[in-house]
Amino acid sequence: MKTTERATTRRPRPGEARLEGQPVSSGVAIGYAAIAHDPALPPIDTTRRDCDPAHERARLFEAITRSTAQLRRLHDRLALLPEDGQVEIGSLLEVYRRMLGPSRLRRGIEALLGQGMLAEAAVQHETEALAAFMLSPPGRPAPEGEDAVAARRRAGEFREIGRRLVRNLSGTPYRSFSTIPDGAILVAEQLRPADAALIDPSRIAAVVTEEGGSTGHTAILLRALGIPAVLAVHGLLARVGRRTRLVVDGTTGRVIIRPSTRTAAAARVEVAAYARERQALGRLRRLPARLSSGEVLTLQANLEIPAELPMIAQSGAAGIGLLRSEFLFMNAETLPDEARQEALYRPLVEAMAGDPVTIRVVDWGSEKNSDALTQAGIGTGSDVNPALGLRGIRLLLRHRALLETQFAAILRAATAGPVRVLLPMVSSPAELHEAREIYARVGRRLRRKGVDIPDPLPPLGIMIETPAAALMADVLAQEAEFLAIGTNDLTMYTLAADRAATDVAGLYDPLHPAVLRLVRLAADAGLRQRRPVSLCGEMASDPLAVPLLVGLGVRSFSMHASAVPRVKRAVRAAAMDDCRRMACRALEAADGPEVSAMLMDYAATLHHAGDG
């Protein structure tokens, strides 16, 4: 079901209203609302410039000390949360802790205190300034797509620690969930990550908020807790009171207020059906990803931040098919050195217990924000169109020290388990050849130093993200040891449409035959050169699209961990002959909607066959 940023009212029956928001954590719940109000912060005088700097610094130090103690108590409470929740909130608390230490944020606040500003005003001013810089860096294009998601998350981190400091400076209390009845549905205007960490998933049936989004830390934590949740339900609090009965569908984003007897009965059926589906998907974890005709595929998981590791372990994924290393630079004030990077890679490789890990070297461009890279003068250009500018391997070859450090750290960590190294945004054989020479040189340097690294070096592969790379895949595959098709960027560049740009988002369609033909070219090139070919991007997470991609020649997929069970179920129901027939029809289709309709028909056929 299509969701919207703002909720809409749908033909309510008498006494019943239906709203929609952003689905965040799947599942269905029925229960009574428990509204948790957040005590408002007091007004802050931003005009004063006559405060005693020494006094305000003492107040700030006391607030930092109190905030640090609160974060420590939250960390101590992690043992009560599910494992996924422990990792996610633990990583976030570490980010907050670093912000309270010697950091750019703290230096900025203390500089404002030296100008006679009130501590609360200095905290608010500096956290908002840093948040604004993340969202719209001066002299550079605003982040788009996945980069915009990361920027909003980073801005939220600054604002959250700012609110915590202001609360402690002003003595404003925090909200508590301890009085909420068991089985209630938590309703709030907004839920912050630290609030979500206080939720007991055995007591709270679901979470609904009026604000928020599906990509922030709160959403990630709610998914980790396994609680049905819908955020950004506009107009929610105006319609819901204490003890209002609700039905919450975290899969579709639907919230039903005061459900009728019939609606409530249907919701109870959905609750039971969802529980059965989770059990069925759970049983798939240990089963192979084998087509009904016998062919075995490889389903792996993407990893964007270390907090997602437990979800990968629980999904049944056969390794990490795409480890995005950008997280190393997002929260760093200085460039992470070789030792720091190895210390982050090695535990991830070890945790996979022999399953392969594909690490993509940093894919950066001028539309992304990083204090560390900015201070080093890397990726600070003001490209008119960042997507067509200095990014990916182009930027890394311009700043070779960055690439050499990352290569060395990965090679050191590769002794902990099977690793592959992936180069982003390669569009010509010359780029690959130059990167391979650097890779080999780094390996020789480490061996001369007596460092233990794998022999031979881990495979070096490339992303197929542009039409140029797909059209030249047969040449690139002669030197690349594996290919990874990135369908998100490949779709954007093929159709000249950015999915984050409202005016042309409707043109962005991964099922467009032009995109599918390029996927087929890359898959065929890998087969001819006997190179493994994998596919990542949103298409890999779509149970309807994967059988078609199998027919195009792809045998390995990397997706968000939560998608693995459903994709595996679709794979086990499909037969190779059907996949190939679909591929032939799709390549001859006129447009994406025609391909989509064909996939829906095929899925319906399988469903009816299963019923029979």
Low-confidence stretches: 1-13
Strand order of the largest sheet: 1-8-7-3-4-5-6-2
Q: What gyration radius follows from the Cα positions, in whole Å?
A: 25 Å
Approximately how much helix is present in the residues?
40-55%
> Approximately how much beta-strand content do the residues carry?
5-15%
Tally of helical runs? 24
Inertia-based shape: globular
Secondary-structure content class: alpha/beta
Pfam family, one: PEP-utilizers
Catalytic activity: L-histidyl-[protein] + phosphoenolpyruvate = N(pros)-phospho-L-histidyl-[protein] + pyruvate
Organism: Komagataeibacter nataicola
GO molecular function, one term: metal ion binding
Describe the protein's topology.
Layout: E1 17-20, E2 22-25, E3 28-35, H1 53-76, H2 83-100, H3 104-113, H4 119-135, H5 145-170, E4 185-188, H6 193-196, E5 206-209, H7 217-225, E6 229-231, H8 236-239, E7 245-249, E8 254-257, H9 261-283, E9 298-303, H10 309-315, E10 320-324, H11 327-330, H12 338-351, E11 357-360, H13 371-375, H14 393-398, H15 400-413, E12 419-423, H16 429-448, E13 460-464, H17 467-471, H18 473-476, E14 483-486, H19 487-495, H20 513-528, E15 533-536, H21 545-551, E16 556-559, H22 564-573, H23 576-587, H24 592-611
Parallel strand pairs: 3-4, 4-5, 5-6, 9-10, 9-16, 10-11, 11-12, 12-13, 13-14, 14-15, 15-16
Antiparallel strand pairs: 1-8, 2-6, 3-7, 7-8
InterPro entries: PEP-util_enz_mobile_dom, PEP-utilizing_PTS_enzyme, PEP_util_C, Phosphohistidine_dom_sf, PTS_EI, PTS_EI-like, PTS_EIN, PtsI_HPr-bd_sf
GO cellular component, one term: cytoplasm
Subcellular location: Cytoplasm
